[in-house]
Amino acid sequence: MAINPPVLDMQPNIYLIEGESAFSYLPIIRKLQNQGKKVISFGIGQPDFPTPDHIKSAAKAALDDNFTGYTETQGIPELREAIANYLNTRYQSDVKSDEVIVTPGTKTAIFMAASSYIRPNDEAIIIEPSYYAYAQVVKLFGGIPKFVSLDFNPQKGFSLNVEKIESQITNRTRMIFINNPHNPTGAVFSRKQLDQLVELTKKKNIIIVADEIYDNFVYSGNFKSLIEYPDWRDNLIYINGFSKTFSMTGWRLGYIVARRETIPRFNDLAVSLYSCATSFVQKAGVIALKGDWDPVKNMVNEFNRRAKVLYDILKKAPGFEPYMPEGAFYMFPRISSILNRTNLTVKLFVNDLLEKTGVLVLPGDTFPDKAGREFVRFSYATDMESIKEGAQRIVEYSEKIFNS
Fold this sequence. Notes:
alpha/beta; Aspartate Aminotransferase, domain 1; seven-stranded mixed sheet; three-stranded antiparallel sheet
């Protein structure tokens, strides 16, 4: 006798999850390349620099030493100590190594932060445009993302409006996600804005999930880390990692910092989820933090140069409103006049641009709600020649639109 599976009266939350748009364009790019077309991608946000040699050597040495088994779920002690020392030296904080848990990348850290605190129908404020993952993990655990848009100034870019955030807080608000320096806009939020945000969350007893993965990519402005506040333990979950700073995207190494009492909760989840971060990668992470930082400084300087070149060329493109980013390696210009002139949505514009010029930018409404509907994202983590050629193709494309 066949046993019929139970009928679900509702879809599992996993059906609410949306993928990352940058990855969805990869097969399209490959198809165009197979047709012999030269595609210039301003899409995926990963440094185009190789992982520094001394970090790779540390991983090879760990492999040669057969350091390939399980480690402590929380992370090897020397890596957690190195992370604490880095944060304390860089930001004059007082992080202890037992307040650190190592994760396989920062996406896992975001997942763990949401899963540990979001209950069904809890609300989480997502400052938009934003990195797509925050809203997805909130939905996965039955929470409700509430989107609050950044303010936009065509000359200066984006800024945080704490009054807007406060207007959306209810008695169901559990956390606020903030990414600083900011993906996708390249903004660096001011000390005053962060002071106001911290005061608000203390007053309302709300958790801040601070993703500072781009903390070493700062070109102007005055970056302040949320781990700098002396009372950070009251309501902060701090997230960072190695992917961007050390050009280690494929190595998958990140970490969470939180008050000591919450670490066992994260540890119990981690042991069920991934057991531990990859052993020999953790050894490489120690050397990344304690070793030579010149490759990082050189990369950041080069990104700053690229941003200026991209900005100077895009200023010539009719319908584009570029601005100089203050951090990360993204630019998020408004293109509303082009959309109005062509009667295209931003996604259709991106597809048309890719088809006609071979240049990929990402549609702003994938970050992830309404605030980006008139914007596109450029990742200038690509070589200077491609930046110049790709931006010039865009100038020519936009000139045809406005001269037709």
